[in-house]
Design a protein that fits this description.
This protein is an alpha/beta fold and about 290 residues long. It has one domain: Rossmann fold, CATH 3.40.50.720. The protein has a 7-stranded parallel sheet, with helices on both faces. The longest helix has 29 residues. It is globular, with a radius of gyration of 21 Å. The structure holds hexanoyl-coenzyme A (HXC) and NADP nicotinamide-adenine-dinucleotide phosphate. The site of hexanoyl-coenzyme A has 18 residues, from helix 4 and helix 7.
């Protein structure tokens, strides 16, 4: 057993149709590859059709399973409805949708124009709302069951300086997750979220750690497990949350970050810096006070 390996049996997702927004690159691409490998009909969507086509071809060459690329800007409700119609016509039904598309960049908030702030809110929060509303309405009307999986971040609940529009948007997505998990459960629709810590992707690293920031702030150092995430371990969690093995998990956000956010939160976690040999002396000092 190894976290870099796939966790599910071959063909576990046979006859399942899964839409992944932002599926042409980064984590979405890794999810697409793994779910297709498990036999799912995978639809990848984003704004850049050429990129989607290249990704589809790359995955098809590797695992011999067709991937369906559909251009769709999640900010535009009509495009989202059209994408869902095409996917339904092609595969007869959609079983799951992963709200993975995102936009983000670091910036002091006072440097942002109103449009810059809106751009991130529109992709992340409005985009997730558009996909959820359009497909949710369709599932309810057709009496089909389905699963939504939303990709958020740990700063959805802690907040974070320098990525404030993203923090606001991801917090909204988390609220959507917990709200609809309850409201739509009666229709057989589940909704969960994953909060990944750092998983290297070009999209995120170019915008969050440009230039030599990668070297200056090696993210491994702020993670208790002293490593960044592997795409396969995230893909395993995605597969689990879309599978029937997680049928009783609803409205949950699962963190996969090596303990990163708790490292920043625990009041006395700074004591990690105390060298082993100092503990005898510290213990004596504490015990001495009892007298
Ligand atoms: C300040 C900026 C800016 C920057 C753009 N803008 N970049 N402002 N600093 N670095 C401003 C622009 O001037 C413009 O405002 C507005 O934002 C919209 O910019 P456009 O380039 O016109 O937008 P668009 O072409 O739609 O591109 C969206 C984008 C881009 C978000 C700006 O980066 C993108 O396409 N991103 C998609 C992929 C992505 O971001 N992946 C990373 C996800 S990582 P004005 O006022 O001039 O019109 C992630 C990880 C989270 O979410 C957690 C990690 C641990
Ligand atoms: P990425 O490769 O940049 O993925 C983002 C995707 O969103 C791109 O494929 C992009 O494609 C698509 N997208 C952007 N705007 C869109 C729009 N308006 N309509 C449709 N698609 C759009 O970055 P990533 O790191 O894999 O991020 C994937 C997800 O994981 C995001 O939700 C991100 O917030 C989350 N996340 C990542 C990390 C990490 O460490 N990597 C950590 C926590 C959370 P186009 O440009 O072609 O549209």
């Amino acid at each position: 057993m190894n976290y870099k390996q796939g966790m599910f049996k071959e063909n576990s997702f046979f006859n399942q149709t899964i839409v992944i927004t932002g599926g042409g690159s980064g984590l979405g691409k890794s999810m697409a590859k793994y779910l297709a490998k498990l036999g799912a009909n995978v639809i990848i969507t984003s704004r850049n059709f050429e990129k989607l086509q290249n990704t589809a071809e790359e995955i098809e060459a590797e695992i011999d399973k067709k991937i369906e690329p559909i251009a769709c800007d999640v900010r535009d409700y009509e495009q989202v409805e059209k994408m869902i119609t095409i996917a339904n016509e092609k595969f007869g039904k959609i079983d799951a949708l992963i709200n993975n598309a995102a936009g983000n960049f670091i910036s002091p908030t006072e440097r942002l124009s109103a449009n810059a702030f809106d751009t991130i809110l529109d992709i992340v929060l409005k985009g997730t709302k558009n996909c959820t509303l359009a497909l949710g309405k369709h599932w309810i009307k057709e009496k089909q069951q389905g699963t939504f999986l939303n990709i958020v971040t740990t700063y959805a609940w802690t907040g974070s300086a320098y990525v404030v529009p993203s923090a606001c948007a991801k917090a909204g997505v988390l609220a959507l997750t917990r709200s609809l998990a309850v409201e739509w459960a009666k229709y057989g629709i589940r909704m969960n979220a994953i909060a990944p810590g750092p998983f290297p992707t070009k999209g995120a690293w170019d915008r969050l750690l440009p230039g030599d920031l990668k070297e200056k702030f090696d993210l491994k150092n702020k993670i208790p497990l002293k490593r960044v995430g592997e795409h396969q371990e995230l893909a395993n969690l995605v597969a689990y949350l879309l599978s029937d093995f997680s049928a009783y998990i609803n409205g949950e956000v699962i963190t996969i970050d090596g303990g990163e956010w708790l490292q920043g939160a625990g009041e006395f976690n700074f004591l990690e810096q105390i060298p082993e040999e100092m503990w005898d002396m510290l213990e004596q000092m504490i015990r001495a006070k009892k007298k």
